[in-house]
């Protein structure tokens, strides 16, 4: 995706396995594996349902180029859907209306819940104590 933000791939399997690959702009580069609980997996499934994921457009993007983006993919058996979200999510001072992706709030909430439930922050930003002693 564009922009100077973190670039990483995150895969969460139905058994709770979390696979992370940090590529650029992240605290941890390379591959890591984690695990989430069965209840967290169930929460994710519910979040996809609440977002009406299979009814979403395949892509949401702003008119600008080189903005942050997220791609969310859900595979349930043979059914697979990708949703691409390119742009900012609010109309604050840092994101003029021309930079908004037009993504519905349900997709934005889903994207955020995926990151929270997978605890991706540990790899993307690290704990403050780790950052204190981290050498690049």
Output the keywords:
6 strands; 136 residues; three-stranded mixed β-sheet
- Main sheet strand line-up: 1-2-3
Largest beta-sheet details = 3 strands, antiparallel
Q: Which of globular, elongated, flat, extended, rod-shaped describes the shape?
A: globular
Oligomeric composition of the shown chains: single chain
Extract low-pLDDT stretches. Answer: none
How many extended strands? 6
Helix content: 25-40%
What does the radius of gyration come to?
16 Å
β-strand amount: 25-35%
With helices defined by DSSP (H or I, 4 residues minimum), what is the helix count? 4
Structural class: alpha+beta
The N- to C-terminal Cα distance equals 23 Å
Q: Could you state the order of secondary-structure elements as H and E?
A: EEEHEEEHHH
Mean pLDDT: 85
Can you offer a commentary on this structure?
By secondary structure, this protein is α+β, with helices and mostly antiparallel strands. Helix content is 26%, strand content 29%. Strands 1-2-3 form a three-stranded antiparallel beta sheet, with no helix packed on it. Strands 4-6-5 form a three-stranded mixed beta sheet, with no helix packed on it. The chain starts with 6 loop residues before the first strand and ends with a helix.
Give the helix/strand layout:
Blueprint: E1 7-12, E2 17-24, E3 30-35, H1 38-50, E4 59-61, E5 69-76, E6 79-86, H2 105-117, H3 121-124, H4 128-132
Parallel strand pairs: 4-6
Antiparallel strand pairs: 1-2, 2-3, 5-6
Helix pairs in contact: 1-2
How would you sum up this structure in a few lines?
With 136 residues, the chain is an alpha+beta fold. The protein has helices at 38-50, 105-117, 121-124, 128-132, and strands spanning 7-12, 17-24, 30-35, 59-61, 69-76, 79-86.
